[in-house]
Task: structure prediction
Amino acid sequence: MNRLVIVLALPLVFLISSASQAPAPSESVKWLTFEQAVELSKKEKRKIFIDVYTDWCGWCKVMDKNTFSEPQIAQILNEKFYPVKFNGEQREDVVFQGTTFKFVESGRSGYHQLAAALMNNKLSYPTVVFLDEDFKMLQPLPGYQKPEQFHKVVQYIGEDHYKKITWNDWQTKYKSPY
Result:
């Protein structure tokens, strides 16, 4: 009888033990559409972070996998910004501040006018864009961003350090979690 109890209890003990040692699920970015972010910002002012990507962009996918999946980065994006995923080739119109931005046929595909406006007409993917609480451009940042370098930028802007300290001074004060 004792052997039977041990044989039956052993898998249960193993299951409980392995479940308690499993890593906690990491926080992920809670992406919004551009329109959702604008609406939320009307209720509660917050900066807007925009990841301008395309479906064919390999570095955009790498940034999703390596950078935006980092818990420290996801936490700052979710708490300090309204994070937006914006396809630079989307075909749907976007109305923003009284202007209708449209898809423009060009080459093999085309581009969205809002993407071009956000990237100062320099279509480069990926590009991340930071807008302040009043939808004013703070900074477009083109190219793939490694987590280690991007955390420094997103913390600098997200925590409003840019209002008090220069980028060069920030780099000397910054403490990397990596």
In short: The domain at 25-145 is CATH 3.40.30.10 (Glutaredoxin). The chain has a mean pLDDT of 88.
